[in-house]
Amino acid sequence: MALRYDYYLFDFDGTVAETGEGIRRSVAYSLEKLGRPVPDKSVLDRFIGPPLHDSYMEYCGMTEAEAEHAIEVYRERYVDIGLYESELYPGIAMLLRALHRAGAHVAIASAKPQFMLERLAAHYGIDKYLDAIAGTGLGRHSADKQDLILRALPEGADLSRACMVGDRRYDIEAAKALGMTAVGADYGYSLPGELAGAGADAVFGDVRTMSAYLLGGEAPRGLFLSLEGSDGCGKSTQIALLKEYLLKRGFEVVLTREPGGCPISERIREVILSLDSKGMSDECEALLYAASRVEHVREVIEPALKCGKIVICDRFLDSSIAYQAYGRELGEGFVRQINEPATKRAFPELTLLLELNREESRRRMANGAPLDRLEIEQEDFFSRVRQGYDALAAANPGRIVRIDASRTIEQVFEAVRGAVERLL
Ligand code: TYD
Question: Which residue intervals of 274-378 are DSSP H helices?
Answer without folding.
Answer: 282-296, 302-306, 317-319, 332-343, 358-366
